[in-house]
Amino acid sequence: MExxxxxxxxxxxxxxxxxxxxxxxGHPWFDLTWLGAxxxxxxxxxxxxxxxxxxxxxxxxxADLIVEDSKPGRAPKLMFSAMDAxxxxxxxxxxxxxxxxxxSNSKNHRMDQDVPLLVPEINYEHLKLIPGQQRLRGWxxxxxxxxxxxTIVLTxxxxxxxxxxxxxxxxxxxxxxxxxxxxxxxxxxxxANVIPFIGxxxxxxxxETQKILGNFAGDHIEPLAARVxxxxxxxxxxxxxxxxxxxxxxxxPHEKDIRHxxxxxxxxxxxxxxxxxxxxPVIYMTEPDRPQPRKDTERERGMAAxxxxxxxxxxxxxxxxxxxxxxxxGAAGAAVLNAELMxxxxxxx
Length: 349
Fold this sequence. Notes:
- By secondary structure, the protein is an alpha/beta fold.
- The chain contains 13 helices and 14 strands.
């Protein structure tokens, strides 16, 4: 790649915005040159506008950048959005209307019929929605989203099984506190405890899974015709969402067929050697007590899903465990990989 691409981050002072900044350090294609946030941060150097919550100091490449108001104008064409849901709709649409490519981690547009809800290894063909989006909304820009942080773990575990015919899914999450942002869950609530409620999470997992695993049908996505039930729990883990999954499959495959599907699963990001794509998107672990958040979340730069404990399920057909890094593969890293796929498709030209 000869020409480097300037990129910006909306919502740059928040936790997900900081993960974008960290993940983009040293990127072989993208140069982070613009940071946007609320008007109370605008005009300040980034080091003064943001309290850095991640490991190490504020990266030197952004410390002295002046934070801009989150309005189109001087921003680069490619924008990553970590905007809070309370303001994301209007801001992201304003940027798309001004011709920007908005790759969003916010939930606001995920279920819009004309907006791709993208996991590049699973549903890259959903990018075909974009011309219709531009016609319908009358803008030259575009909005593409990545899923909820727990949905991406579930769908990466299910995607290798799609050709067996997914009928029913029951998923129970054990979600890290970093998924709640900063300051997140009060310490007196989460220490030595499990909170069996995360507002809106179960509905998002159920709906988003059906869209991601659905098929492109001209001007919309035909949802996966499977019933999905989710139970979502917050647990005292810093990073890494664990999901236990039970699944019923139409073709009743043997266990060895499922293992083969897990072990050989690969897709377009791997074929095109996209910079942020893991060599293997799903990695099956044979140890009886793995994957574990503390031991496995950070592996593969946090971009792979780790699976394990495949066995027969006496209620459905099979059950297994999936683990993914919620702020990397479930947020910033997912959006960067989406943008890399879009560049490889010629959508950033």
